[in-house]
Prior knowledge:
Elements: E1 2-4, H1 8-18, E2 23-27, E3 33-38, H2 43-54, E4 62-65, H3 71-76, E5 79-83, H4 88-93, E6 96-98, H5 105-113
Parallel strand pairs: 4-5, 5-6
Antiparallel strand pairs: 1-3, 2-3
Amino acid sequence: MCIESLDKEKVEKVASVIGLDEIDYLPFSDIPWYKLSKKGATKEKAITELCRHLNIPASKIAAFGDDFNDIGMLRLCGKGLAMENAITEVKETANEVCASNENDGVARWIEKNLL
Length: 115
């Protein structure tokens, strides 16, 4: 669920009605919204499950991100890439910065490094 608000107290009120022990909430960096999701429903958990299922280590995965909810995923994977348009916290977490979303950063990185 997304809530259009910059008022963290109001978002916390909504979250408390749902149950703070059941959900996580993070702000978006570029719009005045918060994203509420089931606790533990993270990108890094999904990658961990995929790695388990495919029997590959996370160190063999490249992940691309640009916002708060990508930081854990970038830390988990062997190659964490921040988009050029990413927030500062993501760029500081990443191993490398690639071109922006608007400049086909993911495709350009894959073409250069994997193909």
